[in-house]
# Entry
Amino acid sequence: MSAERDASLPNPTKWLLIGAVGLIISFVGMFVDPRMASFCYLIGLIFTTSITIGMLFLVMIHHIFDAYWSTVIRRQAENFLAALPWMAVLFIPLFLITYLYKQDTLWIWMDLEHELHGHGTVGTDPLYLKKTWWLSETFFWIRAAACFAAWIYFARTFRRNSFSQDADGSAEHTYSSRKHAAGGLIVVALTWSMAGFDWIMSLEYHWFSTMFGVWFFANSMRAALAVLILVAAFLVAKGPLKGIFNTKHLHDLSTLSFAFTVFWAYISFSQYFLIWNGNIPEETFWYNFREEGMWYGVSMFLIFGHFLFPFLFMLQFPLKTKYPAMVFMACWILFMQLFDLIFNILPSLKIHGQTAQLLHQPLGFLWLAASVLGGIGILLWAYWTSYYKVKIIPIRDPRIGECLNHNH
Amino acid sequence: MADKFGILAKFDTPADIMHAAEKVRDAGFKRWDVITPFPIHGMDGAMGLKRSWVPRFTIVGGTAGFITGMSMIYFTNAVNYPILIGGKPLFSPYFAFPVSYELTILFSAFASILGMFILNKLPMHYHSALKTEKIAEMSDDKFFLYIESEDPQYDDAKTRSFIEGLHPVEVSDMEK
# Structure
């Protein structure tokens, strides 16, 4: 028995259409303004992928701790995991644009003839020659494929275990999920860091930060928790989760979101602090790019908007238990998370000799909006399609009884 | 008995004392408490307790710690003994941040402990519950509720019959 298709809940096809429109505009952009549009596409893709990876982490954390409080909301996270294979499909255009347009559209090290400002080409750059074994094109695409393969494997396993348990109620599925969570946490943590290094950090291959993977993880967790709060609030307001998901569950999600706010700030600050203190040109240039023109304002906005405001907001107990307040905060965090990705990705345009000042390139806003809309459309299409196929909560999970009676 | 502290009622199960506490709460008594051998989940609601004030002490302590850290480093590095190191500015919030952050946590912790002591009126060296021989049961397997004679609603006979109406196992007086 699947959840009844309720007229008040969104139609998946509508989201597929929205996603398709966004993606089509993005692809048109790749012909009109290839480099800018590709960068924006990368941002949109990473934004949506980070939400699904965050969901995958949440599911694994739930299983590894044998948690009970998150059982009612775990099913919604599993529904989001249905989007992962589509994220892999959406990655293919990045491969195509690299070989159909220019080898260095996104990652300059892919073109050994790429002229570096003031000192020869990438092929003669000692900093590149030291990294050739990792930054080789074939290896790069293999890594991307391996990352997606690993994520999809774990996503499918957790979904299958959870949905089969609805049918037969066997505890074996819980044990299987727990074992997979133990291995999966290590594998996904490594592959997700690797994806961060490859897709974002190697845009400026001179730069390196060992904290980047952790930052990437923190950001994906914040995005996933924000989306989960929004989905829970939506399903409570519309009825399906009303009386099942209570304010104590909301408080727990909000508290976790609060914890990752502090974690994000800790990691982001530590990265900046070490680079500031070390004062090595190969590292500091990265932040110099991000203090020029509009990016200075953006970086300040990140400190106060992505940390201080959510921190002070979620520090207050009453706000963490109220739906309107947390819906506002979740939207805010999601928006700021996108902003953070833009801040990390877009200024790299400068090494292409192109202006990274978005205000001078108003078309950039269109590509950005289109790619984010495209990604979100596909994500929600996959989510709602999966939502209608399965039960609203894992009804035969061993922990579901405890979770339903979870109270302040 | 002239020096009467209050009336003590004994209950056998956590559920009994929860229901009794709810009735005392609804009757509007102000100075009363329950004594149980272990924390009972939901008792704060049954007693009508509001959320603790401790977080307010914490935020004041944390803010004070942050300001202390920043101003201490500003004073030592930029005012009292300025040394230029590696071309870095004499004062910058970046390098002052880790220390300020640690002091934020340290001061928050101190303020929380202090706030908890103040709000609980600790240290309390004497309480009349310690004088009754029932103290052994209080810390073993029985559940107690008392209403103080200082309570504005207290009336010797009426309060006693009210407490008996809660169906306790045993009712006794507490000496000051």
Summary: Residues 137-168 of chain A form the longest helix (32 residues). Chain A has 15 helices and no strands. The CA atoms of residues 156 and 253 of chain A lie 24 Å apart. Chain A touches chain B at residues 269, 272-273, 276-277, 279, 315, 317, 407-408 (CB under 8 Å).
